[in-house]
Design brief:
Order of helices and strands: HEEEHHEHHEHEHEHEEH
Strand order of the largest sheet: 1-2-4-3-5-6-7-9-8
Shape: globular
Number of domains: 1
Radius of gyration: 22 Å
CATH topology: Rossmann fold
Strand content: 15-25%
CATH superfamily: Alpha/Beta hydrolase fold, catalytic domain
Structural class: alpha/beta
Number of strands: 9
Distance between the termini: 67 Å
CATH architecture: 3-Layer(aba) Sandwich
Length: 286
């Protein structure tokens, strides 16, 4: 039996549908803002004109050869012939690339500093996931003009484990970055020690003393990276909150450890300090 509706009922349904759509539109997350980089950022005339076809500003349609989806943000004044530093941001567990960008809140400041920033979808941790996430940097560099000597990996929780795991497990593959920033990683010195030491110029390990999921993992991982860099041993037990640089590291390499407060799921409020570290500024307390 067909149900017949009056014009009044149809109008009411249409109004409710329009209202629902309006709520959905207005509640959708705002598009991120990208900043303009300084004129001296990057390397001039590093890429051929027309050789990089990535969309400047906001590009949500990048994917690796495995189909891993990537969002890329560039400075608003991006020049496709100029090579920029690349910040590869790996997601926490369960976050897709859009949610990851919101979680970290790095896009405005990082692009103002001249970084191209990428965010990938989360993959459940496995050797295959590490191999797939390792393709992000090369994929972005194939579409955007990237300085290959200025690539940094950053992540929180699963994202931090990926950032450290790619570097340690794919040694010799060309995936080693210039800097790593790893927060709340679920990886220990013992895990990393099973692999040869990667040569990474700068490593910043951030971990909360209140992290109940991975208690004290950060100090352990920091000690591993310091040993790899031939730094002088440091007593991290006394670092209740704040940052400490290891001293006397070989070949100008830098390793720092920052202790924070808060639960495992919380991203520490130290974006500026992390970007400073990647750019070669001494680590500061959060």
């Amino acid at each position: 039996m067909r149900m017949r509706l009056s014009w009044r009922e149809l109008s009411l349904i249409a109004a409710l549908a329009a209202f629902s759509f309006g709520v959905w539109v207005w509640s959708a997350p705002p598009r991120p803002e990208v900043g303009a980089a300084g004129r001296d950022v990057g390397l001039a005339a590093a890429c051929d004109s027309g050789g990089r076809t990535g969309r400047a500003g906001l590009d949500d349609n990048v994917a690796t050869s495995d189909g891993l989806r990537i969002t890329v943000r560039t400075p608003s004044n991006y020049d496709s012939t100029r090579a920029y530093p690349l910040l590869v941001v790996y997601p926490p567990a369960g976050y897709d690339r859009q949610k990851s960008e919101i979680f970290y809140g790095l896009t405005p400041d990082a692009t103002r500093r001249g970084f191209i920033v990428s965010y990938s979808d989360h993959l459940r941790l496995s050797r295959q996931a590490v191999a797939q996430q390792a393709k992000v940097a090369a994929t972005v560099a194939s579409l955007f003009c990237v300085d290959p000597t200025s690539v940094a990996y950053l992540g929180h929780s699963d994202g931090a484990t990926i950032a450290e795991g790619i570097t340690a497990s794919l040694l010799g593959s060309g995936a080693a970055p210039r800097a790593i920033v790893a927060s709340a990683a679920g990886i220990t010195r013992e895990d990393l020690a099973m692999l040869p030491c990667p040569s990474v110029p700068a490593v910043l390990i951030v971990h909360s003393r209140a992290d109940a999921l991975f208690p004290d993992f950060g100090r352990s991982a920091a000690a591993y990276w310091a040993q790899c860099a031939s730094c002088a041993p440091a007593d991290l037990e006394g670092v209740a909150e704040g940052c400490r640089d290891f001293s006397a590291c070989a070949e100008g390499r830098r390793v720092a450890y920052c202790a924070t407060a808060g639960p495992h799921s919380r991203w520490p409020a130290m974006n500026a300090a992390m970007l400073d570290f990647i750019q070669g500024v001494a680590a500061k307390s959060p």
